[in-house]
Write a structure and sequence with these properties.
Blueprint: E1 4-8, H1 12-24, E2 28-32, H2 35-44, E3 49-53, H3 61-70, E4 79-83, H4 88-97, E5 101-104, H5 109-130, E6 135-139, E7 142-146, H6 150-166, H7 168-223, E8 227-232, E9 237-240, H8 242-248, H9 252-256, H10 273-281, E10 286-294, E11 300-311, E12 318-327, H11 329-382, H12 388-413, E13 422-424, H13 426-432, H14 434-441, E14 445-451, E15 457-460, H15 462-478, E16 484-495, H16 497-500, E17 509-518, H17 525-528, H18 548-558, E18 562-568, E19 572-582, E20 605-609, H19 613-625, E21 629-633, H20 636-645, E22 652-656, H21 664-674, E23 679-684, E24 692-693, E25 696-697, E26 703-705, H22 710-722, H23 749-753, H24 757-768, H25 772-785, H26 787-798, H27 802-810
Parallel strand pairs: 1-2, 1-3, 3-4, 4-5, 14-16, 20-21, 20-22, 22-23, 23-26
Antiparallel strand pairs: 6-7, 8-9, 8-12, 10-11, 11-12, 13-15, 15-19, 16-17, 17-19, 18-19, 24-25
Length: 812
């Protein structure tokens, strides 16, 4: 009877190949495509051996083996497992399931047949040793006979001989037969012994192959390019490979003395414990997650960690964890960098959008405020002193002036100011306002400087840089209500690609750096994300406009620089400002205009071009009252027609910059062709237009910013017509005064210093921070104490002359 083998394989191609191999070797083969089918076939047929794949649908090879061992009639059936899995734990799981042999795919056909022969050879030997009589077995399609052992054979021969004595005649007849039978028996025993020796050799070769496979597993574990470790359930290391040690910067001998938990980041010690618990309970067979390890030198290593539970072969209880790790630190760093850049991009886009909105609002407001201030001035001239309505008009004027201050701050934020950059040494700027900064901070805050002696130069507007420093110092002071320390540092800086990769829009190059650091309350990330937005403030209602840091941001950006904030709650804050470093040869200096005598009685003809009707009427009224002849036009094309029809000389073109049909610059260029001696003043509510290049006036350009009051526009017209160099840019700076002008009302320093200390301190703070509305309010309070002192201060306030105010307040 032929040997019957049950073959299980879910791959039709591999199953057919296996069946063909076994049938060619003389076996009867019964097939199944999964463990469930195979179990049914084993119960329905007399099976001598099972050859099964591991990975199959419905019931895999492990579960099939377990089901055989649980069946009383099938539990002794020998099983060979075939698999493409190569990890040690797969072998362990197969042996735990009850497999007799374990062969890895792809397998050698002769190796497989050797395993089969080995199994049946061992069975034959065991059966021969226990049988009382000879047995017939079919092996590889050949019938063989194995008799009992030699002692039994001798006993049988002796018994036969003794019987033969009594039957002498019968013995004589059978002697030759017995001799022939004995010779045949010996030949068959020798033949079978030789066959068994061959099969045992094949079995030994299979064992060698198995040991080789195990050695390959060890080599694969030890030499893998990913970290591998086997640990007890308590975390003691059983085996660890070189790659694992390299990731942590440690030697294997060193790690053998450590517990697994010692190189896990403290914050990640309990991370994913629920997942490990599911492994122990059997709900999961493997798990994967990311967590932080600690390198020997202390730095954090991010790893992608996968864990599998190994169970005891005999009991099936959890025994070991096998852990695989891959270093993903660079990937995590790149992800963090990308996230940071995306946040910076969103913030930059947001600031750009807010800036555009703020600039547009400021432009429209400046036109409206110019009209309000102009007509308020007309009314105040018409209302005599002492009239109750005069104080109402003064309130309107002061409110409009406060609004004008806000629009200027919005223009600073939106980078639409007009700057007057000069070659600048930041150390000199800081030293120039040293005393002023100390007074802002008061006695409870220690102020220290670390200024680089060989600091490079930058091209910036000194007044704007002073404003930046004062606003940052005021902000730092407010963050240290209980006192603290403020440090101002300057240094040369070279930024490389590595640094600029972390900071959006910043190019590698040479910079001068200012750092302002405090030991105050600090800020969380959410606050840091908004601090440069206009009107955002953490101060109580009425204690700040929220424009201080937005003004700083705008000035720095318009100066070609960058500003970054670094802060932690409770740890303080540092603002770092980078401004482009220049060589002396590349610096352009804006010279202050030389004073010339100016006439204050207007006799010239001015071509006024303004598309806003209310603004046009107000400006025309102001200039006509000053004695000028005004030719008014609503746009550039109309102005060309007016000029062509006017027979006399036009001395000055006063034109808005942005108008429908034809802008102010195009209009001026066209008029200068026919009137080459024509002088030009541009006016605008913002400066993002053709007359400026990134906020810097083109050489020889006369400009007045809106809003302006009566004195501003008259003074500017007089400057230009009198030949004073046109370097004024903001419409608020004062031209040199002629003798005919009224002198500033003198300030009595004794009376000023005699003011209540709290009031004087608040006034100084408001002046330093350039908070116009606060200054106006405080001057109003002083008016009730000393009207003459308030009037003198008021003259400086009306001109926005913060330098003069600082001088009288601090020049003790």
């Amino acid at each position: 009877m032929k040997i019957r083998i049950l073959a299980l394989e879910d791959s039709a191609t591999q199953l057919e190949s296996l069946k063909h191999l076994l049938e060619e070797s003389g076996f009867v083969v019964i097939t199944a495509t999964n463990g469930k089918e195979g179990l049914a076939a084993a119960r329905a047929n007399a099976i001598d051996l099972v050859i099964s794949d591991i990975v199959m649908p419905e019931m895999d090879g492990y579960d099939f083996c377990k089901a055989l061992r649980a069946d009383e009639t099938l539990r002794n059936l020998p099983v060979i497992l075939l698999t493409s899995l190569t990890e040690p734990q797969d072998l362990i799981l197969g042996l735990q399931a009850g497999a007799d042999h374990f062969i890895c795919k792809p397998y050698d056909e002769q190796e497989l047949l050797a395993h089969v022969r080995s199994i049946f050879a061992n069975q034959a030997i065991r059966n021969t040793a226990s049988s009382e009589m000879g047995i017939n077995i079919f092996f590889a399609g050949q019938q063989s006979f194995i008799n009992a052992d030699r002692l039994q054979i001798l006993d049988l021969l002796l018994s036969t001989y003794e019987n033969a004595v009594s039957r002498n005649n019968e013995l004589i007849r059978s002697r030759e037969e017995l001799r022939s039978l004995n010779e045949q028996l010996e030949a068959r025993v020798a033949e079978r012994t030789k066959a068994l020796s061959s099969e045992i050799e094949a079995h030994n070769q299979a064992l060698v192959a198995l040991r080789k496979s195990e050695e390959l597993f060890r080599i694969s574990f030890d030499n893998a390019n990913i970290g591998k470790a086997i640990t007890t359930l308590g975390g003691r290391l059983v085996r660890i490979n070189a790659a694992f040690c390299a990731i942590l910067g440690r030697e294997q001998a060193e790690m053998a003395e450590m517990a697994f938990s010692e190189f896990i980041h403290p914050d990640d010690q309990t991370k994913n414990w629920e997942t490990l618990r599911d492994l122990l309970s059997g709900e999961l067979t493997s798990a994967r997650f990311e967590r932080r390890y600690l390198h020997k030198d202390g730095h954090v290593v991010w790893v992608d960690e996968s864990v599998m539970l190994l169970r005891d072969v005999a009991s099936g209880e959890p025994a070991f964890f096998i852990t695989h790790i891959v270093d993903i630190t660079e990937r995590k760093r790149a992800e963090a960098q990308q996230k940071n850049l995306e946040e910076q991009l969103r913030a930059a886009q947001k600031m750009e959008a807010i800036g555009s909105l703020a600039g547009g609002i400021a432009h429209d407001f400046n036109n409206l405020l110019s009209v309000i201030l102009s007509y308020t001035g007309f009314l105040m001239k018409a209302v005599p002193e002492g009239d109750p309505s005069r104080s109402d008009l003064l309130e309107v004027k002061q409110a409009a002036e406060r609004a004008a201050t806000l629009t200027r701050q919005l223009l600073a934020f939106s980078r639409k100011q007009v700057l007057q950059p000069v070659q600048l040494d930041l150390n000199q700027v800081i030293k120039g306002i040293d005393k002023m900064l100390a007074r802002i901070l008061g006695e409870d805050i220690e102020l220290s400087y670390t200024l680089e002696s060989d600091l490079g130069l930058t091209l910036a507007d000194p007044g704007q840089i002073e404003q930046v420093l004062m606003n940052l110092v005021v902000n730092a002071r407010d963050a240290m209500p209980e006192g603290g320390k403020l440090t101002i540092e300057t240094s040369n800086a070279e930024t490389d690609a590595g640094y600029t990769a972390q900071h959006l829009d910043m190019a590698p190059g040479a910079y001068v750096r200012i750092a302002v650091s405090d030991t105050g309350c600090g800020m969380d990330k959410a606050t840091q994300a908004k601090i440069f937005e206009p009107f955002f403030t953490t101060k109580p209602m009425g204690k700040g406009t929220g424009l201080g840091l937005s003004t700083v941001y705008g000035i720095v950006k318009q100066s070609g620089g960058f500003i970054w904030v670094y802060s932690e709650p409770g740890q303080g804050t540092t603002f770092k400002i980078f401004l482009p470093r220049i060589s002396a040869s590349s610096a352009a200096t804006v010279n202050k205009p030389q004073a010339k005598n100016m006439r204050f009685a207007g006799t010239e003809t001015i071509l006024l071009v303004e598309d806003e009707e209310a603004m046009r009427r107000a400006t025309k009224r102001i200039l006509e009252a000053a004695g000028y002849t005004i030719l008014a036009s609503s746009d550039g094309d109309d102005a060309l027609g007016v000029s062509a029809r006017y027979p006399g000389e036009i001395h000055l073109l006063l034109t808005d910059v942005i108008m429908p049909h034809r802008g102010g610059k195009d209009l001026a260029q066209e008029l200068l062709k026919s009137r080459p001696s024509l002088k030009v003043i541009y006016m605008s509510g913002y400066t993002d237009d053709a007359i400026v290049n990134h906020g810097v006036l083109e050489s020889g350009t006369n400009f007045i910013g809106k809003p302006f009051v009566e004195d501003d526009i008259i003074r500017k017209v007089q400057e230009v017509l009198s030949g004073v160099a046109a370097d004024r840019t903001d419409g608020q700076e004062q031209a040199p005064k002629a003798d005919a002008e009224i002198k500033d009302r003198p300030i009595n320093k004794a009376t000023l210093m005699a003011l209540p200390s709290d009031l004087l301190a608040r006034l100084r703070t408001a002046v330093i921070a350039a908070h116009f509305d606060d200054i106006v309010e405080l001057v109003g309070t002083i008016k009730a104490i000393d009207p003459e002192l308030a009037s003198g201060l008021g003259q400086m306030v009306e001109r926005y002359d913060y330098d003069a105010l600082r001088n009288v307040l601090y020049d003790e």
